[in-house]
Amino acid sequence: MITVDGIILVLSCQKHLHTRLKELKLPKGEYAGWKVVYVIGDLFLDCDYTLRDDLMVVKCEDSYIHLLKKLGLALKYLYAIFDIKEGVLRANDDLIFNEAMLEAFLRSPKTINGDADGEAIHFLGRSSSGKSLFERDLSVANKPPSDSMHLVYYYNDHPEDFENPQHNIKGVDISRYTKQPCIPAFLFGPLYYLSNKTAGILVEHLEGIQYDVFHYDEKTGSYPYTIEDCGVSFIFYYKGINFLHAENWHHNDDNYVRSVRSVSHKNNTGVMAIHTNMYK
After folding, report:
1. Over the stretch 197-223, which tens digit does the pLDDT of each residue have?
2. pLDDT value of residue 279
3. What is the DSSP letter of 145?
4. How many Å apart are CA 225 and CA 109, to the nearest integer?
5. What is the pLDDT of residues 231-252, one digit of tens each?
6. Closest by alpha carbon to 278, among 14, 21, 56, 102?
7. Hey, CA dihedral for 227, 231, 233, 234, is it positive or negative?
8. CATH architecture of 2-275
9. Is the CA virtual torsion 164, 278, 230, 34 positive or negative?
10. Domain-by-domain residue ranges, the chain?
């Protein structure tokens, strides 16, 4: 096995191979011993996966609604290939990183207080509540699920996806899967860190539901796995994994009009990454 300090896993898809993955690609293939790997899906691949240079192709749907499945399979195969010391930084393909802050995080001890002997961080990102989550009230499982129209709106804007055989969603009624479980705080957005422990928990859980993103959870009366960051949050919440909120993790630039290599973006000292929402 190849030993690395960690993996920077950038989730993407075939339609962005010549846009985001070219224009927003990280300049280096490795940061502080963390290897950069870009992941796309190919439902018709004749093997489980391929890894050539920095591009991994996994045999699965390449659709937005199957992101959690693509992530789980990528983690499964990456841990089979690499001896990963510190974990995985999962990123969107439309981020611009402050590379100095990125390297500083990768080199830092992955503990709550930044102390090499401190309590380990297992799940880190931006929280929807703006707060870390260290305690669980499992009675929320008895609360009715909420309706999230996010996927309905997305597919209303991308009707062509239903006809793409790589997406495997022809005839799927997205409105059937709007119920999301009630959790005090969800992971918000395009960048988060998983320790080796949590990466293993995620893969094991998805193996248990056979990577079925349309799986119905009877306990919560919801479909927790159709939205990737919500699915990850759901799994870790009920597995008792603490969620550490990072305020300076990323922010959105919805009015993105400047050069993707602009100095003001790359050297922004306020956050580690800017979410461009480029080529939605």
Report:
1. 999 999 999 999 999 999 999 999 999
2. 59
3. P
4. 31
5. 999 999 999 999 999 988 988 7
6. 21
7. positive
8. Alpha-Beta Complex (3.90)
9. positive
10. 2-275
